[in-house]
Amino acid sequence: MSGGVDSSVAALLLKQQGYRVEGLFMKNWDEADGTEHCTIMEDLADAQAVAGRIGIPLYTASFSGEYWDRVFEHFLAEYSAGRTPNPDILCNKEIKFRAFLDHAVTLGADYIATGHYARRRVIGDGSQAQLLRGLDGNKDQSYFLHAVAGERLARTLFPLGDMDKAEVRRIAEDAGLVTHDKKDSTGICFIGERRFSDFLKTYLPAQPGNIETPDGDVIGRHQGLMYHTIGQRQGLGIGGLSGYSTEPWYVADKDLDRNVLVAVQGGQHPLLYRQGLYTWHIDWVTGAPELPLRCVAKNRYRQPDQSCTLEAAGDGYRVLFDEPQRAVTPGQSVVFYQGEVCLGGGVIERTFMDEAGSPGESIPMQGQSA
């Protein structure tokens, strides 16, 4: 129980369905780190109030050590390499559905349950489960759960998977839960209300460099490649340049070797689009399908389904989209679906602009530059 409305209603529904429910509040960040920006104590108080209202016990467990080792160090390494990671995906894989699940099992639990908007379907002998999209398309969170293995999903319940957010809030209000109108959490707990750039400066040294056009003209300065992501418009600090139009500038690429940010004008500039991508590893929920595979994919959360072909490529995988994709970002995840079933996904290693490059082309392995 996180202290939010979703986990509150998940616990309430399970109690009403006859389960013996016990709440567990996870501490994944050391609130005594001196930053005073994490809302963990407020969230714990809300979780305690909800547990008291429902009539279930609430325990706390700290996974801050595991979070630092398995999630945060990777987060910093990716940003220092100029990439844009998604720590929520790794947190689900390594903390909520590994450290938390293992802890719950040692306490005698048959299942864990979360407030995610996703569903699962038990298959075979019951030891595995497929991951299904949540029925509320606006809240479906299967994208963030794609790296959770099927045997762990088989021991998980998603009480909100068939519901939409409005219904969840209504149930919470009718039950008198203090979280019924609590604002949804956004961003990452350990960043809180701070500016993202200010947070990164605490852990990573800034490395200023030039902002250039694709032709090599210097048009500005950046304070560090880690502060920018592909397709970004805000925060570049350039505009009103003589010899250029008044169209806004967008981040099109990062030249890591030269520490240069490449920017283009216009949100539909051709250099903002990629025909495909490579990923070196895919977490399959219930095993790898036969390749090549026609399916749909998302290369960012809430993106509409994009038709593509997935095939083996040297030491990894190649994804060729039917239509060019805007702002495909290394470090983010590409997630594959067939119908309502989420097959799995992987971290985007690098991208390509056209169909050049054979399916057998080797791709950089983890830790190598593209």
Automatic annotation (TrEMBL):
Boundaries of every tRNA-specific 2-thiouridylase MnmA-like C-terminal domain copy: 275-348
Gene Ontology terms: cellular component: cytoplasm
Subcellular location: Cytoplasm
Tree of life domain: Bacteria
One Gene Ontology term of the molecular function aspect: tRNA binding
CDD domains given in the database record: MnmA_TRMU-like
tRNA-specific 2-thiouridylase MnmA-like central domain span: 198-262
Active site per UniProt: C91 (nucleophile), C189 (cysteine persulfide intermediate)
Assigned EC number: 2.8.1.13
Residues that coordinate or bind ATP: M26, G115
Pfam family, one: tRNA_Me_trans_M
Annotated positions for site Interaction with tRNA: H116, Q332
UniProt-listed HAMAP family: tRNA_thiouridyl_MnmA
Function: Catalyzes the 2-thiolation of uridine at the wobble position (U34) of tRNA, leading to the formation of s(2)U34.
Family: Belongs to the MnmA/TRMU family.
Protein's name according to its UniProt entry: tRNA-specific 2-thiouridylase MnmA
